[in-house]
Design goal:
Elements: H1 3-14, H2 16-30, H3 32-35, H4 39-62, H5 65-81, H6 86-103, H7 109-121, H8 139-152, H9 156-169, H10 174-194, H11 200-219, E1 230-235, H12 243-254, E2 258-261, H13 268-278, E3 282-286, H14 293-307, E4 312-316, H15 325-330, E5 334-336, H16 339-349
Parallel strand pairs: 1-2, 1-3, 3-4, 4-5
Helix pairs in contact: 1-4, 2-4, 2-6, 4-5, 5-7, 6-7, 8-9, 8-10, 9-11, 10-11, 11-12, 13-14
Length: about 350
């Protein structure tokens, strides 16, 4: 990282809330329609701009403006689904730029402003509608929709029991249960939240039930003889998404692996300690959001420094979807942005005999 980028990133991180507050005030002065909504609008837009600041800090720190552009696009899609005018979002971003142009120290300011300008210019590109994640014409697609419907109706135990029944009576492989039923259902509830057709409580309900289902299906499944291989999975500090790690652990366990799933929000130093304790052959480190890339970098570098070449490090999750080369530069062996890709990568390293 260039010295100017490092300095700018530090300033953005330390001043995120202050700059967001100034930009919110400027936005409400510019738009009487928002000002008329009172304190609730102020709090909402301030929270929105704090998040944009953190994403901007990550993009500047890594020298990857596209990370910020893509996160703004994601926000545009979510707000559009909730009938928020794009002009409000554009004005908010422009107010933030004006504050940064006025308040940031000259050293490194230009790169920050150019990154924001790219995101503003991207408003000229239309937003695509997310396609449905479940194919209702296929048998597993119908299973996924029925599972999702049961969970959203509050019949969580029934949803899990029905999958166990399918696994047992129709001999549906664990891989299909997870990759073709549970994962599409999980992605679909995420899509529905993004489009404003579900809320956070519903998304959390589906996630918690999916974790129950993976555990139940895994323990009801017959596993291959032990292969003498260990995989360890963990989400980096700050990342609360751990369904993918649990699913990957279950699928490799079926193949005879010993699976150690550390779960969500694991600090780098604790992950290093766990690597020493469990001595995995493959270590899967996941990150979901771009703002977690700094934690991911610290973790990968720490693991590689401690382990040397004694472990394969696979970085998983959507945080690196735009820049898969970053984790490799930090010391990872490979990057996989989906559960299927992660499973394929591990199997390519250690083919079943």
């Amino acid at each position: 990282m260039a010295q100017s980028e490092r300095f700018s990133a530090q300033v953005l991180e330390s001043g995120a809330r202050g700059y967001a507050a100034l930009a919110t005030t400027a936005l409400l002065e510019r738009r009487p329609d928002l000002r008329a909504e009172g304190d609730e609008a102020r709090a909402s837009w301030r929270a929105h701009l704090v998040q944009r600041m953190l994403e901007l800090q990550t993009a500047v720190a890594l020298g990857r403006p596209n990370l910020f552009v893509e996160r703004v696009r994601w926000s545009r899609r979510a707000y559009q689904a909730r009938s928020v005018s794009e002009s409000q979002l554009r004005d908010a971003l422009q107010c933030l730029r004006e504050v940064l142009a006025e308040e940031l120290p000259p050293h490194g300011r230009q790169g920050v402003l150019e990154t924001v300008d790219q995101a503003v210019a991207d408003f000229e590109r239309p937003i695509e509608i997310d396609e449905r994640e479940v194919d209702p014409e296929s048998a597993n697609g119908r299973r996924a929709m029925l599972y999702l419907l049961s969970v959203l109706e509050g019949r969580c135990r029934r949803a899990v029991d029905e999958l166990l029944q399918v696994q047992r009576e129709e001999e549906l492989p664990l891989r299909s249960c997870i990759l073709d039923v549970l994962v599409p259902a999980q992605r679909e509830i995420g899509r529905l939240w993004h489009l404003g057709d579900s809320n956070i409580a519903e998304e959390h309900l589906v996630t918690s039930t999916t974790k129950r289902a993976i555990a139940a299906l895994s323990h009801a499944n017959t596993v291959a003889p032990p292969r003498g291989l260990t995989v360890m999975t963990a989400a980096v500090e700050g990342d609360t998404h751990d369904v993918g790690g649990q699913a990957l652990s279950a699928l490799l366990e079926e193949q005879g692996w010993n699976a150690v799933d550390l779960g969500a929000d694991v600090p780098a130093e604790d992950m290093v300690g766990a690597r020493v304790a469990f001595e995995p052959d493959v270590l899967v480190v996941s990150a979901t959001l771009s703002i977690q890339l700094s934690a991911l970098e610290r973790t990968v570098r720490a693991l590689r420094a401690e382990a040397g070449g004694d472990v394969r490090i696979l970085v998983a999750g959507s945080a690196c979807a735009q820049d898969a080369d970053l984790p490799v530069a930090w010391g990872a062996d490979a990057v996989a942005c989906s559960l299927e890709a992660a499973l394929d990568q591990v199997e390519s390293w250690f083919p079943a005999t």
